[in-house]
Every structure is written in C-alpha cells, then in structure tokens.
Amino acid sequence: MISTAPTATDAPIETGVLASSSCHREIVSLEDVSYSYGAQQVLDKVSFVVRERDFIGLIGSNGAGKTTLLRMIVGLLKPTSGEIKLFGTPMSKFKDWQLIGYVPQRNHFNPLFPATVREVVLSGLYGRRKLLKRITKEDHLRAEDALNTLKIRELAEKRIGELSGGQQQRVFLARALINNPKLLILDEPMSGIDTETQNNFFNLLLHMHKKHNITFLMVSHDMEMVRSYLGEIPRAKSGKLSFHVRHSHDLEDCGETDLLHSLRKEG
Amino acid sequence: MELLSAEFFQRALIGGALIAITSPLLGLFLVLRRLAMIGDTLAHVSIAGVALGFLINVYPVAVGLAFAILASFGIEVLRRRYRSFAELSIAIIMSGGIGLASLLFTVGKGYNLDVNSYLFGSIYTLNNADILIIAIITVIVLAVVIALRKELFLLTFDEDAASVSGLPVRYFNILISIMTALVISASIKIVGALLVSALLMIPAACSLVLSKSFRQSIILVILIGEVAVVCGLWMAGIWNLAPGGTVVLLLIAILLASLVMTRRARV
Fold first, then answer.
1. For B212, which of A104, A116, A123 is closest by C-beta distance?
2. Which CATH superfamily does the domain covering B2-260 fall into?
3. Within 10 A of B219 (CB to CB), how many other CB atoms are there?
4. What does pTM read for this prediction?
5. Rounded distance, CA A184 to CA A176, Å?
6. In this structure, is residue A21 part of a structural domain?
7. A2 within some domain
8. pLDDT-based confidence at residue B187 (cuts at 50, 70, 90)
9. Rounded Cα gap, residues B233 and A161, in angstroms
10. ipTM
C-alpha cells in the first residue's frame, strides 16, 4: 500500500499552519513542566509529546496533578517552570485557540443556568475570533449540524439543567466540536455518568478518532476504562501520572476534513 | 391624573424607566456569576463617595461613581488574595464603605447633608442633569451589552471555556465591574443605597425560575424591572408612599408570584 501522505518528520511546524499533511506533527509538547501551589509541588518536570492522531488517556489518582496539567495546556494556568508548545508554537505566542475544543468537567458549570441546549452549543463559536461579529445563518447551520451529529437535536430547546448527565456531556461535546477543532481536550468526561452511557460516549470518541483527523487528550480517574480502551501499558509515566496512548493509522490522508459534515454523512 | 402633569413626577418616571432597563440587565449577569452581593457593596461605598462629594462641593453622583469603580477594583484585588474565600472581599469592602460613609455623615452634620435621601432614594428630586446622566449611562450599558452579548453569555456560562476560546476574560471582568459601578451610582438617587440591590437582583431571581433560555431571561428581567418601577412609582404617587420602598415591595410581590407559579421548579 502506498500512502499519499509524505513521511513524518520531527521538524518544527510553522505557527498554526495546517496545510501540511503529515500525521505526526507535534500537537502539544511539554518540556520539563513543573507546577507548584505555594510550597507544594504538584507536577515535577513533566515532559511529554502529543502527536497528531493520538488518543491520550491521562490517568492518575486524586491529587496527581491531572487537572492542573490540563489547565496549563489550555492556558488557564501558567507553569512554574518549563515550556508548553501548542501546534509547535510556544504558549505565550499561541493564538489559534479555535483549533482546540475543550470539554470542561461537568460539575464545573451551574446546572441551573437559564440557557437552552442550542444556546450552549452555539456559544462554542464565540471567542476572540468573532468578537463583535453577529451570529450568522451559517453559524446556526453549524449548530444544527452539531446537534444532529450528537443526536441531541430534539433536546435543542430544553434548558441545559433538565438534561441527564450523559445528555449534558453530549451538549458540551457538540459545543467543542462546532469549531471543527484539531485537538479535543476532555476533563473527566465520564464522571457521574452510568457505565452504559460511559461506554457509548467512549465509543463515539473512538469512532471520531478512527475516522477523522482529530487528536484527543482526555483526563480520567477511571483507570480501568482508560486501560481497556487505550492499552494496558502507558507510553510514559511521570510522578503519579501515566499517559496511555492509542495512535490511529486508519487514515491515509491527513488533510482537512470538516468533522461535523463528515460525521453527519456517516449517519 | 394631576400627578402625570407634574414635572417632578415625569422626571421620576423617565429616570425610573431608564434605570429599570440597565439595573436588572446587569443584575442578571451578576447573579449568574454568583456575585449577587456586589451590588450592595458598591452601593454602600458609593454612598461614602456621595457624602464626600457634598462635603467638598463636587457633583456627588460623580464622586460616588469614582468610589464605586475604585471599590470594584479593590474587590478584584482581594478576590485574588483570598481565592477560596471570594465572599470575604465583598464583606470587607462593604463594611469599609459603610464605615467611611457613617464617618463622613457625622463630619457633614452641619452641612445640611440629607442622609435619608441617599439611603432610601429621592426620585422626586431628580433634576435635568440627573436625567441626562442616567440616560447616558443607559445608552452606554445597553450598547456594550448588545455588542458583546455573545461574549458575555460565554463568560457568564463558563469562564474557563471563555478563556480557552481566547476571550480576554480579565478585561471583561473589569468591564462588568465598571458597568455595575455606573448603574449603581445612577440608581442610588432613585431607589437609595439600601434598596439598589433589589432592582439588580430580584428580577434575575424571578427569571431564574421562569425562563428556559438566556434570551428569554434577558427580556424577562427588563420587563419585570419596568413593571415594578412604573407601577411602583404610580402607586407611590397616588397613595403618597415612599417610592423606593414601593418599587422594592412590588418586585418582591412579583417574585412571590413567580415562585408560586412554578412551585415544582427547584433553583
């Protein structure tokens, strides 16, 4: 089999350029990243590289620094020392935040917030990129797409708090996917959801991973589940954290795809 | 009907109707961000500024506004120091404001300083300059909220996601603080410092149980604010009651009705 994609190199990637079709670009790189709250060292010199099309499960016990690490990667916390690069660009210069979809911990939001599912999904499009811009017809169509793809279309006009945990999780996934992100970051997506729903959700993620050019970074305290889906042996360990990785080789072409459109085509 | 032709009553209606747009609107954002008490705090600090304005013979509302803005920055600073005790910052600034106000009131005893009119409002003494200032503040606040409604929604719903999407969260927080200070200093003369937070918070409290979507709650808070202020002033005028107090009691009546209407909903 002849792959049309050029061979992977470790050469640094230009800022935010996605034209390259190499499937092994560095999406996130951590170099000697440490973090401490006051005198308490939470993370000590963590180094790790997330490559394109990886599905990373980051596991560790409570207090191992999982969420801290995630919050540093999305720029909510600054490392005490060390460097983080996103898509090859140092954090401080990174601007293309729409490349990153973020699904925060569900218990993080106020379930009684007066907002409909549709409003929450649409809000994924707001941000610096669209500051002061009106919501266009196209935006509404994308929201519709995201709702259909995640099978929550019939819930669109419901208040977010009325939904079950699993349904809420789909809403947040839809919100993260509406921007067609290259990297999807999920913080404890399975907490407070029954096992069957967890499995459905995980299979949905794996399907996206297999068929689409999207990289996953997921934090979980559920070691069993991560191991069973992503492999027993971690690719790397650092302190109490372990990184379980499954890399997808299924795609021959790493070019651009519109995730929502192609997901919908698949039904 | 005689009342309607009285100029002081017309001014009261205009000023009240304007404040009934901006106060509940900002209050909704504050309540949803769990900052319900900030209105009270800024109002009390603002009172200290008003008193100082009287003593040094500078337009009191302007000095009150300056104090409110300073206080909102003070709250932010303290909130950073006492990260897990955010409510402390509000309590500290509030007691500081009351302390300073009471001190200035005693100093100003000989200056014909009418304490009551600022604690309980004196909507019938609004002059044209007051109306102009309230109108300008209404236009500013409305323009900002309409222009940035998508971003304000995102920030209010999920500050982390807002930050990850590249929204300059810090500037937005400062913007909200300044707008709150503006609205509070404008509404002190209308409902009084002790009652300012009623007009900020009670419409939001009603909409939390009544509305399904964010859009709906924005419309609803303004509607409730208008009904309470216009009817309240009317009733106060006819039966010769305290206008600020009548408005607040009407608001509470609307809240009770909302709670009874939606008995089963838990917020």
1. A116
2. ABC transporter involved in vitamin B12 uptake, BtuC (1.10.3470.10)
3. 12
4. 0.83
5. 7
6. no
7. no
8. confident
9. 37
10. 0.81
